[in-house]
Design a protein that fits this description.
- There is one protein chain.
- The chain is mostly helical and 383 residues long.
- Among the domains are: 104 residues, no CATH class; 159 residues.
- The chain has eight helices and five strands.
- A five-stranded mixed sheet has the order 1-2-3-4-5.
- Strand 2 and strand 3 form a beta hairpin.
- The longest helix is centred in the C-terminal third of the chain and has 91 residues.
């Protein structure tokens, strides 16, 4: 950064020197012109005031040097200030870059760790998914998994096995064995079967071409209709035998249930005409909530009826209690009146008779004292 400062100083010095030379030339021209006007020959250089001219040039040169030096110093000071500011700014930028680089390395390290953890979790999820797919390839395993899903929904709904529903209870007469039988008020029951048509659905998901996907879709919907026919043939709907007028068919997967709704709405309509209600885990929860509310309402209604009966019995007992209480009150008032009479009139009568007896006894004592022998003191009679 020192080269620009030297270039500015040299340029100023050259300009000052050129100015002094130009002034000297102008002085010489002025002297020559004056001699020409007076008709004299130009003076020789010895005749010119050379020393004065040189002294003026030196003074002018010195003044220009001082001015140039001062300007150079001011410029250098301004440049130094700018350079210092630039150095501070560069230092700040350098620190900022270092901090940014350090943060970047830390974030990259954290991101790498997170990506590795995500990769491991993805591998575990892929293995679990593959294991689940292999496990669900069995019809028995799919049925058990579907019943486990139904058990979770029933538990969340607050239903208890053996109290609100029974599992795999044979139906008398028909030989059917529904997966779940819900116990409703007034001896009614509601049956439910768990169906999980998964094989062709997985083929739809894994299909690599539209033709293969369309074929798997048709096969899947055919499987669903086959499960529907199985439920309708098992006589799960028997109002005369104490069931409600419908049966539940539980699909234990929301995606499969949504696929059925999206690709063949006619299946659901045909099921309703056959008195079969398709349920997914979410819709089953809603249906069970309605069932639970109905049971609670029935229990409350029965309890209210019992309470009303108890209130009627209480009213009868209360009437009897009040009747006997009034009778006892009347007897107590009669006894109180008799006691008052006994304490008042009867007592005064007895006291009068006692006073008469005392009077007669005193009189008798007086008579006995007057009629007795001398020196004998009559004995007093005590009452």
């Amino acid at each position: 950064m020192s080269h620009p400062r030297r270039s500015v100083g040299e340029v100023g010095f050259v300009v000052a020197l050129l100015g002094v030379v130009v002034v000297g030339l102008l002085v010489v021209l002025v002297v020559v012109a004056s001699a020409a006007r007076t008709g004299r020959q130009p003076a020789t250089p010895q005749e010119l005031p050379v020393e004065q001219l040189l002294r003026m040039q030196h003074e002018m040169l010195a003044a220009e040097r001082r001015r140039g030096t001062e300007e150079l110093r001011g410029t250098q000071t301004a440049i130094d200030r700018q350079v210092d500011a630039m150095r501070e700014e560069l230092a700040r930028l350098n620190r900022l870059v270092e901090d940014t680089e350090r943060d970047r390395r830390e974030h990259v390290g954290e991101l790498s760790s997170q990506l590795q953890a995500a990769g491991r979790q993805t591998e575990v999820l892929a293995e679990t998914t593959q294991s689940l797919r292999e496990a669900l390839s069995s019809t028995t395993a799919r049925g058990q998994w579907g019943e486990r899903m139904a058990d979770d929904v029933l538990r969340l709904a607050g239903l208890v096995d053996g109290v609100n529903y029974r599992r795999h209870q044979p139906l008398p007469g028909s030989g059917g064995i529904p997966d779940y039988t819900f116990l409703l008020p007034q001896g009614l029951t509601l049956h439910m079967d768990v169906k999980f048509p998964l094989n062709n659905y997985l083929r739809v998901v894994d299909a690599s071409s539209d033709v293969e996907r369309e074929h798997a879709r048709k096969e899947f919907l055919r499987d669903v209709r086959q499960r529907l026919r199985e439920v309708t043939r098992r006589e799960y709907v028997d109002p005369a035998g104490g069931t409600v007028d419908c049966v539940l068919l539980f699909i234990p997967n929301e995606q499969v249930y949504a696929f059925i709704q999206e690709h063949d709405r006619a299946i659901l309509d045909d099921a309703l005409r056959s008195k079969v209600v398709f349920c997914s885990p979410l819709t089953l929860f809603a249906v069970l909530a309605v069932i639970r509310q109905a049971v609670d309402n029935f229990q409350l209604s029965r309890t209210s009826h019992e309470i009303l009966q108890r209130l009627q019995g209480f009213e009868k007992q209360w009437d009897r209690f009040v009747e006997h209480m009034d009778k006892v009150g009347r007897n107590l008032r009669t006894a109180a009146n008799a006691f008052e009479e006994l304490e008042g009139t009867r007592r005064r009568g007895v006291e009068r008779e006692l006073e008469r007896i005392d009077t007669l006894r005193r009189d008798q004592r007086t008579d006995d004292a007057g009629n007795g022998p001398p020196g004998v003191v009559p004995l007093a009679l005590e009452a």
